[in-house]
Amino acid sequence: MDSKNLPKHTLIENDILSKIKNGTYKPNTLIPKEIELMEIYGVSRPTVRQAIQSLVNKGLLAKRKKRGTIVCQSKISQEFTHIIESYNDEVKNKGLTPKTHVILLQKELPSQEVCDNLQITKDEFVYKLVRLRYADEQPIVLVTSYIPNKIFPKLNEFNFEDVSLYSALDDNNYPILQVRRKLEVLSADETTSDLLNIDENDPIFYFHTVGLTKNNVPAEYSIAKYRGDINSFEIYIQR
Fold this sequence. Notes:
Layout: H1 8-21, H2 34-41, H3 45-57, E1 61-64, E2 68-71, E3 76-78, H4 87-93, E4 98-108, H5 112-118, E5 126-135, E6 138-148, H6 165-171, E7 178-187, H7 190-196, E8 203-212, E9 218-227, E10 231-233
Parallel strand pairs: 3-10
Antiparallel strand pairs: 1-2, 4-5, 5-6, 6-9, 7-8, 8-9
């Protein structure tokens, strides 16, 4: 490593940054532990920590409890705030590979929150569909969707690892024509953090969405939990 009157921690920072850029340290992989970096660069632990913290502050590295320090993936811009588009189509349009894992699909009686958003009564069954969605093998968002049984009684016959919910609703003559969304920023609980591969209490984008079909009838209510570290959202406002 070249010494050009720069502090040691800056030289280490620059070398790690170079390895991130050339792919030696790939996104979402761990960099060497502090003790290994001390041996590599022949410096003390405080010097290594200073270099790492600088890259953390710049959003290039992230510390993970009980795991170590990982290389951050570039943020994925989500346009669904102004476009009604399936997750698979949106991810593919960015040159990434989508994947969906169905965690749960079952019929149940709705909670009051679901009733209010779908404008149904507590004795009307809904389908609950829970999906973990990926981009290039990285978990991006955990989505829980509720669909009234009276609208789509055969929902359980579809494999939603291969079929999008919106295309299935289209084919069943209940296309989603407009949506209403509310955004919160919350802390990840233990289950969400495990599924999204983030630390407990890390920030997540928490979207509530009501999908409206013909005659403004609610056909879907979903709760989507997006990782805060690799997602950003574009919002278009026109006067």
